[in-house]
Amino acid sequence: MSKWQYTKKSEAYSIEKIQTYVVQVWQGIKQWSSRSIKSWSNGHSLQGFVCLFLVGISLSLAIAAYAASSSNTLKATDSGNHPSLVAQQKNIELNLVSFSVTKAAHDKIIPKFVEKWKKEHNQNITFKQSYGASSPQALAVIQGGIEADVVHLSLAPDIQKIETAGLIQPGWEKEFSNNSIVSKSVAAIVTRKGNPKGIKTWADLAKNGVSVITPNPITSGSARWNFLALWNAATKASGDESKAIEFVTNVYKNVPILPESAREATDAFFKGGKGDALISYENEIQLKALNGDKPLYVVPDVNFSIDNPIAIVDKNVDKHSTREVAKAFIQYLYTPEAQQIFAQTGYRPIDPGVAQAKEFVDKYPQIKTLATTNDYGGWAVIQKKFFSDNAIFAKILRSVNN
Asked: Residue 2 pLDDT more than 70?
């Protein structure tokens, strides 16, 4: 809305009118004061002038207070929390920012939500969507290059960066079900046709002569999940952190390139013909199969739960007056209807009923040993230990490059 409206006693005032009225009053006070000073100088009583002056000041303060009160009321109304603001709009635009591999799911879910909202509210919703590597997407939101209303990113630290920047209020993890995790997957190893290098386990990726494609953990959430899957497999096998460092270092010695995102890594493997093996999301490989390809892959029995969070960008929804729609969209993503689409496009469903459907039980076999971020102290501990400056991954990378 270009102009905020506030109604009191059946009389509408705009901010512009209030400001104009205050200016007029001040001009009147100045003229009044000028005449009073002249009268005083002509012998009229000082007492009369002082009284007039005080009355003028009292009136101006009262009007200023009224204007401030009205302005605060208008701002509160514009906060995005007032249902009437959304109800007054016929066309609503919602900005969704997500990581690259969710596009296929969102492309099928969004039209269903748009149709549902139109039927229930008689309003047209247009989605403006942006997909890319998770960390650069978060940075674009922070810098204002994309005014996201909703962010669905690869991992919690990317949303926490947006929170630290002041765009998302603390406590976003508890705002929605399942700690605001709306999609999940596990890691998979993809091989070439016929698997000529005989790659079946995590350990095979560290062998001499094996070329492995995985994204860069500095820019890609997928790559950090891949790193954690490798680390978890090594620690479960040996229980020795020094041996885990040695194993993961040997795997990265076999990595010829570090693409920025999971999608770029997938393209490098399938389209560019690079590597003997690709570490990827299971959902990305499932999607390739749905599109007619038949990639050869294995989901290791020792694996890591890849949990993708979602959040409302509070500052932007309040600016755009889209909080109600943004919240409804996220809640819709948790419904069986939306979770079924996630499952059909490669994600392991978080809805128990959908997960127990025979088609998905067969499609997503149970993992024998599945670790989570909580097993490693949560993301704050993980970030500091593995991915901060001079942490384990940085040391491994320097070792590989030397």
From this structure: no
Does some domain include residue 64? yes
Residue 89 and residue 123 in contact, taking contact as beta carbons nearer than 8 Å? yes
- Comparing 261 with 385, the larger pLDDT belongs to 385
Rounded CA gap, 372 and 393, in Å?
19
CATH number at residue 255: 3.40.190.10
CB 4 within 8 A of CB 74: yes
> Is residue 19 scored above 60 in pLDDT?
no
Q: Is 351 within the bounds of a domain?
A: no
- Output b/e per residue, 199-222; b: 16+ Cβ within 10 A: beebebbbeeebbbbbbbbebbbb
Residue 315 and residue 296 share a domain: no
Which long-range contacts link 29-33 to residues 24+ away (Cβ below 8 Å)?
29/56, 29/57, 29/59, 29/60, 32/56
DSSP classification of residue 383: I
**27 pLDDT tier (thresholds 50, 70, 90):** low
Question: Is this model's pTM higher than 0.70 or not?
Answer: yes
Residues 270 and 393 in one domain: yes
Same domain for 145 and 57, yes or no, is no
Are both 223 and 282 inside the same structural domain? yes
Of 48, 63, 78, the one marking the end of a domain is 78
Residue 73 has pLDDT above 60, yes or no: no
Asked whether residue 126 is assigned to any structural domain, the reply reads: yes
Give pLDDT tens digits for 305-326: 999 999 999 999 999 999 999 9
Asked if residue 166 and residue 31 are part of one domain, the reply reads no
Question: Rounded to the nearest 5°, which phi and psi values hold at 167?
Answer: -90, -25
* Termini Cα distance of the chain: 58
Q: How many domains would you assign to the chain?
A: 3
**CA–CA distance, 307 with 191 (Å, rounded to integer):** 24
What residues make up the domain containing 285? Answer: 187-304+372-401
pLDDT of residue 39: 44
Amino acid identity for residue 312 in this structure? I
For the beta carbon of residue 145, count every other beta carbon within 10 angstroms. 12
Amino acid 85: pLDDT: 55
